[in-house]
Design a protein that fits this description.
mainly alpha; globular; 12 helices; single chain; two-stranded parallel ribbon; 4 strands
């Protein structure tokens, strides 16, 4: 039977350290096999990251003021250039690629390194997440070996897209939230405070890597909030509140900070924050029904 992650119920989690390391080793072995096939394969880039890659290239050449600003022809006057801060996609990818470019790697090689690192880190993270469940050892081994073979996991090695960063960071956030949920009942020591702050920074930084990762981060914050709410009548209420604040403060600060930077640079992360108002019109209702009508027409045509 598949049950919830063995968090506080440590005695029920019979997977020892050596077995967990074995799962991580299997994931690493599977990654090595996939990487061997990808080394001789030219990598392409999905459409979304190309704007940020171009901005990085311009910054390296000295034609852009920073790594996340794209310089292009001014639509109103083609003889002039205009610089635009990229906010449609978060700046995390550029921040990770910039140090690789600084040490002399070409843009293509830097993308290869980033894709491979995200692939390995994510695959080991999902193997660690799998180890938290009470599953038969043979099934855990199959999952640890199989996750790197999933197309979503390894496709960025051949066609890069920023979802690879979500693949890398999300499992470690899940593992960290499970750990924190189990530790909340204990007193807040220095090492545990560092762990809570690290998790909070990770939850906020995930937003800077992929905007949609905020849904995962928010879900984990709500999970931890529910743990704290159940403890509010116990003696461990005050320590658990400190745990919660240690996660919540850096998370909110990083998410709000990025949106403030986007607005300060003359752009916003999305249309809702750009207009800062609720915009309702009959066009929105028509646009909302269009996908449903299209799907029905496609199904009838296929039938």
């Amino acid at each position: 039977m598949i049950s919830a992650p063995a968090t506080a119920a440590v005695p029920g989690n019979t997977l020892g350290k050596s077995q967990r390391y074995r799962l991580l080793g299997l994931a690493l072995l599977s990654c090595g096999i996939v990487l061997a096939f990808s080394l001789r394969t030219p990598i392409t880039v999905y459409n979304d990251p190309t704007f940020q890659l171009k901005a990085l290239e311009q910054y390296q050449a000295g034609t852009s003021p920073n790594f996340n600003t794209l310089v292009s022809a001014n639509p109103g006057e083609l003889s002039r250039s205009s610089a635009t801060w990229i906010s449609t996609w978060p700046p995390g990818m550029g921040m990770l690629l910039l140090p690789l470019l600084r040490i002399g790697l070409s843009l293509g090689s830097a993308i290869h390194v980033l894709a491979a690192a995200a692939f390995i880190i994510g695959s080991m993270g999902w193997a660690r997440w799998i180890s938290l469940f009470r599953l038969p050892l043979w099934l855990q081994a199959i999952l640890a070996l199989g996750f790197p073979c999933v197309r979503y996991a390894n496709n960025p090695l051949f066609q890069y897209y920023t979802e690879s960063l979500s693949y890398a960071v999300v499992p470690w956030l899940l593992v960290g939230a499970v750990w924190l949920g189990a530790e909340m009942k204990n007193d807040l020591t220095g090492a545990r405070a560092v762990g809570a702050l690290t998790l909070g920074v990770g939850l906020g930084a995930a937003y800077g890597l992929k905007y949609s990762a905020v849904f995962v981060s928010s879900g984990l914050v709500m999970f931890l909030g529910s743990r704290w709410w159940r403890m509010r009548t116990r003696a461990s209420h005050k320590p658990s509140l400190l745990w919660m604040l240690g996660v919540l403060v850096p998370f909110v600060a990083l998410v709000a900070g990025l949106n403030l930077v986007n607005r300060q640079m003359g752009a916003t992360a999305n249309y809702a924050s750009e207009t800062a108002r609720l915009s309702l019109s009959w066009q929105n209702a028509v646009d909302g029904t269009r996908p449903t009508v299209s799907r029905r027409c496609s199904c009838r045509g296929a039938w």
